[in-house]
Design brief:
This protein is of the alpha/beta class. The chain folds into two domains: 265 residues, Aldolase class I (TIM Barrel); 73 residues, no CATH class. Helix content is 37%, strand content 15%. It contains 13 helices and 13 strands. The strands form three sheets. The protein has an eight-stranded parallel sheet with strand order 3-11-10-8-7-6-5-4. Helix 2 links the parallel strand 4 and strand 5. Helix 1 runs parallel beside helix 2, helix 2 packs parallel to helix 3 and helix 5 runs parallel beside helix 6. The two termini are 18 Å apart.
Length: 369
């Protein structure tokens, strides 16, 4: 075994042999299949909640929120069927209308952790009060955001985050928690933020809270750098799209394989947040909704310019179309390194590559987590 990177990740009551958390990718890109296989290989396997009911047998065109809950539970159960002893959790966006219901559904279905971003999850401990074993992991891009969450949770709920994800807005895919004008300026230092967040919990609360670096993590060297710079683990998403186990259709994966660095850029989401995606078809994404004239289908976001004024496009529909294989009028979120994908691989092969393990070594470690 060569130069192995084997560092356990412990969050709350749960541990895995490898310091890797699957990033949540909606709509249904990181569903139960991908999450289950990441967990089976020894990582934290994350099912993304956003819009998960659209491409499910539960959805009849009129029952978006009810279908979301049922499909979400189905995907969590699917992940556990693949990795019965694995650490399975979810990603729930604060910005969605049914946030409280999806958090509750995740707990009821047995999720072991909840990652939450696209807004500050200030009341998450209250929503999970009946499930104290569920680890709570907010996503932040600044020390200030981590401080606000910690103060609120400590004062109101006598609880602190079980871990914190520090997301780099200059490299991460999907919705980003930073103002557009600040992204890509070269001023953001992810690992300085990681160290300051970790120091804040140690100095103010005398607690060692694991900090997870997210954004731009692609290969073994990126993982080594993150750990060397003070992160306890990495969160990775885009790297896992071009796997056999990813829940997206083949055309979605092919779009990654065909992409070039210049194809990846920023858009403004109807949610009022910047997002990183493949931008070559963005005019067709917008035109699709203008031509359809259907308007807002379900008010899935608390704040949405498409719902309120008809501007931009319906993001849940655009993401759903892409996941189903319509890469012409569908929106494909990705990180800045998505262009590096050059083949369809497997989750196991990615773990072997990242952690420099032989297949037998990695299987043994995952089993003995």
């Amino acid at each position: 075994m060569k130069n192995t990177v084997v560092k356990k990740l412990v969050i709350g009551q749960y541990s895995t042999p490898f310091p890797l958390v699957l990033g949540g990718m909606g709509v249904r890109v990181s569903g139960g299949n991908l999450a289950g296989h990441v967990a089976r290989c020894g990582g934290f396997g994350t099912v993304a909640a956003a819009g998960i009911g659209l491409n499910s047998s539960h959805y009849n065109g009129r029952n978006f929120f009810a279908a979301d809950i049922q499909a979400f539970k189905d995907e969590i159960r699917k992940a556990y069927a693949i990795a019965p002893e694995g650490v399975i959790g979810v990603n729930c966006m604060v910005a969605v209308t049914n946030y409280d219901d999806m958090v509750r559904a995740a707990c009821e279905a047995g999720a072991k952790y909840i990652v939450s971003g696209a807004g500050l999850p200030m009341s998450l401990p209250a929503q999970t009060a009946d499930y104290p074993h569920v680890a709570l992991i907010p996503i932040v891009s600044s020390v200030r955001a981590a401080q606000l969450i910690a103060r609120k949770w400590s004062q109101n709920y006598k609880r602190l985050p079980d871990a914190v994800v520090v997301e780099d807005p200059d490299t991460a895919g999907g919705h980003l928690g930073e103002k557009p004008e600040k992204i890509g300026t070269g001023c953001y230092d992810q690992y300085e933020t990681v160290r300051q967040v970790k120091a804040h919990f140690q100095e103010v609360y005398q607690k060692d809270v694991p900090v997870i670096a997210a954004g731009g993590i692609w290969d073994r060297q990126d993982v080594l750098q993150a750990l060397a710079q003070g992160a306890d683990a990495v969160q990775m998403a885009s790297r896992f799209v071009c796997t056999e186990e990813c829940d997206a259709e083949p055309a979605f994966k092919q779009a990654y394989l065909d992409s070039r660095p210049e194809d990846i850029g920023l858009i403004m989401s109807p949610a009022g947040l910047p997002g990183r995606a493949l931008v070559g078809n963005i005019d067709r994404v917008r035109q699709r909704d203008l031509d359809s004239g259907t308007g807002c289908m379900c008010a899935c976001l608390k704040k949405c310019t498409y719902k309120e004024t008809g501007e931009r496009f319906c993001i849940v529909s655009a993401l759903d179309r892409a996941q189903r294989g319509d890469v012409d009028t569908g929106l494909i979120f990705c990180g800045t390194n998505a262009w590096k994908a050059d083949k369809i691989t497997t989750v196991q092969e990615i773990f072997d590559d990242l952690f420099a393990l032989s297949h037998q070594d990695s299987r043994c470690l995952a089993v003995n987590a």
